[in-house]
Design goal:
Multidrug-efflux Transporter 1 Regulator Bmrr, Chain A, alpha+beta, GyrI-like, Reg_factor_effector_dom_sf, Effector-binding domain-containing protein, globular, 9 strands
């Protein structure tokens, strides 16, 4: 059982790097995204740029697979640098969100429950999903806290 909240999301300025994986799911994303965060953190530190919470963005690209963006929040005056881009993630009028507590190995189950909630409550996905890492700097992933964010809209009648 999950608790779902619907809310708007503000825009967020992030520094990011991107890669492609063959599909959704921890088996595809997990081995890629962890090293991406380490690489991005090193590049930002080398550029003398402070950064905040981690954000992941996943966008299905048809036959090309899934674009995975590993990002960190940055201040509004930060610009792209060597080996990373800086973008403004757009504000979202309506999202279904829930919190996953624990390892990334089980986050797929929480995503499945969130997507089932979306359909059961008369919504449909309406954009690129995100993960916002509330707690991720711990020894064990079992202590991680991640907000799952799925933009939604009412199903067409």
């Amino acid at each position: 059982m999950i608790i779902v909240e619907t809310k708007s999301l503000p825009s967020q300025r992030v520094a990011l790097i991107s890669d492609f994986v063959p599909g959704m799911g921890n088996e595809n994303i997990g081995p890629v995204i962890g090293p991406m965060y380490a690489t991005l953190a090193q590049r930002l530190e080398a550029a003398g740029i402070g950064f905040g919470s981690a954000v992941a963005v996943y966008e299905a690209r048809g036959d090309a697979g899934v674009q995975v963006d590993a990002a960190f929040q940055v201040e509004s005056d930060v610009t792209a640098g060597e080996g990373f881009d800086v973008v403004e993630l757009p504000a979202v009028d309506l999202t279904a969100t829930t919190v996953h507590r624990g390892s990334m190995a089980t986050i797929g189950e929480t995503w499945e429950a969130l997507m089932a909630w979306v359909v059961e409550h008369g919504y449909e996905p309406a954009g690129v999903c995100r993960e916002f890492y509330l707690v991720s700097e711990t020894e064990s992933q079992d202590e991680w806290v991640t907000e799952l964010q799925q933009p939604i809209m009412r199903e067409a009648a």
